[in-house]
């Protein structure tokens, strides 16, 4: 297929050189962005190791609550411990979801009466811009693309590979592979989002793609930091709970004094984990204010504060369960005076921390966002 002969004349030699240099610069920038994302992917995998290491501590705490009879306090503490574990798990889940959305996008194959959407990798395949060659060179390139020796690099010349390619293309209605290997190769090019564009269209495409990458990468980095902070905060709480269980007599269930201590751990953890996951946004706000911003709207950005909104709700459930367990345990006749005083003091301090957090403008804005 030939292009109008005057299409190349729309750009001067200097303009064409500038467009080529810009596309090359963007490719380098995209490479840097993807190296950062790979670091997030590797780090997220390492975060999963910590719960595996702490599994004995978690099982020890839950075992002490579920053996030798299960009472109301035990059930409340189980809810609190499960909520405590749910925050880092949900944060990691959202992080992996962000990583998946960073590396995969929707590929819209429109035109010619088609409206087909296929998944594609974030980095598309490339074709030479359609206006970079003259008519003779374009015809030679078209002949080379149809050369069976080259086509077989993408579609191996055997029936097994052809059937595999046909099954892959037939999944998406409207993506016809054609009767021969060249048609199959064209279908795979479309799946790889390889489209012949002009040089200026390539410039516009890379501009939009760069903006999308940068916006998603900032969310990805923030969620990684929040997941790490939530995991570390919860790990400290789990290890503290395990120390309480180890201090109990072996083979026995949770005692009343142990219930007070474990409830205290959850009551301290709840405001601490909320403080931890909201810290990155506060750090960014402080940075902006230090640079002279009179006000910021970071806390109102739904994409940057999704982890906080989810964590607030989970932590609230854990805190309420632990508060109920603390009150019931504190008024129990078997509770010593010192344990009762310590438990009620922790409950009062945690209540003050939660009240201050709930009445602050930042947390109100987080709670309003759906």
> Radius of gyration over alpha carbons?
29 Å
Query: In percent terms, what proportion of residues is strand?
Result: under 5%
Low-confidence stretches: 1-7
Indicate the structural class: mainly alpha
Total number of strands: 2
Helix content: over 70%
> Outline, from the CA principal axes?
elongated
Question: What would your notes on this structure say?
Answer:
A hairpin with a 2-residue loop joins strand 1 and strand 2 (114-121). Helix 7 crosses helix 8. This protein has 370 residues and is mainly alpha-helical. The two termini are 51 Å apart. Strands 1-2 form a two-stranded antiparallel ribbon. Helix content is 71%, strand content 4%. It is built from 13 helices and two strands; from the N terminus they run ααααββααααααααα. It has a domain at 50-103 and 220-368.
Short description:
The chain has about 375 residues and is mainly alpha-helical. It contains 13 helices and 2 strands.
Keywords:
mainly alpha; elongated; 370 residues; 2 strands; single chain; two-stranded antiparallel ribbon; disordered N terminus; 13 helices
